[in-house]
Amino acid sequence: MCEKYRIPHSQLLGGDGRWTALDRAKALAWAEWQRAVCPECHTRLEEWDDKRGGDPHAYVTDTLRCPGCELIEQERDHVPGDRSGYGVKIQLLPRHQHRDHT
Predict the structure, then answer these.
(1) pLDDT interval class at 97 (50, 70, 90)
(2) CA distance readout (Å), 66 to 49, 57, 71, 73, 96
(3) What is the pLDDT of residue 75?
(4) SS3 sequence, the chain?
(5) Can you tell me the distance from the alpha carbon of 19 to that of 2, in angstroms, rounded to the nearest whole number?
(6) Spatial contact of 53 and 46, defined as CB atoms under 8 Å apart
(7) In the structure, what pLDDT confidence band is assigned to residue 102 with cuts at 50, 70 and 90?
(8) Cα–Cα dist 13/48, whole Å
(9) Distance, CA of 64 to chain centre
(10) pLDDT over 70 percentage in the chain
């Protein structure tokens, strides 16, 4: 939460919002921990390494289909592959907010 709102941990706990030495140490430790997390699967190598207290079978796979992601992928098929499609972003909007369905 602190990273998301860019506030010191002590403020999250009810403090006045001034950064303390402990807040800075916590923020630096969090940043270092985050660098060790795989951006794809969100695990850390030591979680898999039994020599570092991990388990080679620490995780199992699970499959799920997200209807929203499926819809985005289908729409992506209609985006031109040439320069005219550069920068095109596809978003999901609640039906009642979309201009064609109000």
Answers:
(1) confident
(2) 31, 26, 9, 11, 21
(3) 96
(4) CHHHHCCCHHHHCCCCCCCCHHHHHHHHHHHHHHHCECCCCCCEHHHHCHHHCCCCCCCCCCCCCCHHHHHHHHHHCCCCCCHHHCCCCCCCCCHHHCHHHC
(5) 12
(6) yes
(7) low
(8) 33
(9) 18
(10) 98
Say if residues 9 and 2 touch (Cβ distance below 8 Å): yes
Tokens 């990273």 — which residue? 3
The 10s digit of each residue's pLDDT in 60-77 is 999 999 999 999 999 999
Q: Residue 74 phi/psi, 5° resolution?
A: -65, -45
Q: Are 48 and 54 in contact (CB under 8 A)?
A: yes
CA distance 77 to 14: 48
Contact 55, 47 (CB under 8 A): yes
CA dihedral 95, 89, 40, 62 (to 10 degrees): 30
